[in-house]
Amino acid sequence: MLSTGSRIVLRSTVPPGTARRVAAELNERFPVASLPEFLREGSAVADVGDPDRIVLGADEAATAREVLTLYAGTSPPVVVTDPTSAELTKLAANAFLAMKTSYAHMVAELAERVGADYPAVRSWTSAPVTSTQISRPTVSTAICRLRPLIFLPASNPRVPAPTVSAALTEAESMTPALGAA
Length: 181
Fold this sequence. Notes:
NAD binding, Rossmann fold, 56% helix, 6-PGluconate_DH-like_C_sf, two-stranded parallel ribbon, 4 strands, oxidoreductase activity, acting on the CH-OH group of donors, NAD or NADP as acceptor, NAD(P)-bd_dom_sf, mainly alpha, UDP-glucose/GDP-mannose dehydrogenase family protein
């Protein structure tokens, strides 16, 4: 049973808005925070006690301070935001990792088709300069990033053009929305 002064912290991957819906269901009697976990495959147990980052969504500063005391003695980067943004951050991070995995498979297949050394390609495309930043969604960044998708099939008939075409079509469909950013 929850007593006065209790706080509820959601650790699961949940749809954005879940913490606020839970708080509403409880008639706002208890603060509800979102603290999504970012566990790596093969090191989940270690990651719980020593996370590589903390994204905490809390509407009350006191709740945020209290939850962060659980991580005293660790020094990961900490972001405190609202619960909905924390929940969306977790989903976006998972989607980004899935996209990177799919992309890696596509590049490995392409390397095999054109006779390139995939481990070498992977090591340089994964260098910190390219992997630590996510571009802002603008038309100019979309065009710059799409250029290789146009040139690859034109330069080599062994490049899987349908995959590239699908990526171009998808990116092109997003361009009007990007222009508003």
